[in-house]
Amino acid sequence: MAALLLLERLSPLERAVFVLREVFAYDFADVAAAVGRSEAACRQLLVRARSHIDSGRPRFEVDRQARDVLAARFFDAFRDGDVEGLRDVLAADVQLVGDAGGKAPALSRIVVGVDKVARLLAAIFADLARVGATLERCEVNGQPGAILRDREGRVASTLALDLLGGQVQTVRSVGNPDKLRHLGPVADAWALHREVKQARGR
Is pLDDT of 2 > 50? Predict the structure, then answer.
């Protein structure tokens, strides 16, 4: 997901040159023939594309141990519904980015700001825990993350964290079932949503 977001910084021509050269290792003659530009123009397009990509990457990598400690603090607070604990690890301008694709009653907008995100995250797992949902820590797209599962163990959604400077900068939630099937059987998100609503009313 992070790589796709970086590629969105590029123009269509820059993206084509970057992918052909950097991903598929085409030589410049083949790249030029594919995009209808000269080799010199393609070299310049690649320089610009690399510059755009580099400008969107984190300024430095969080070392593995520090990353794992920070992620553990986040997920402990998330599981416990600990708003203050979440505030402690979230950046002031943290973003919660949802991808439901219109196919699940999951978050499908961007929520910005430590208070809003902390309160929403704390409420999300509290609701799901009422109906037997569980949290399984794992890497998601190479980032610290977790899989949310319903009481039957089916995949309800995933969370992935972007970390920078000892804080969580972005929380990415995927609830679109089409993007979860490779992880195993997928939960009926609408049925789970109805069950959560019923549990709130008890």
Answer: yes
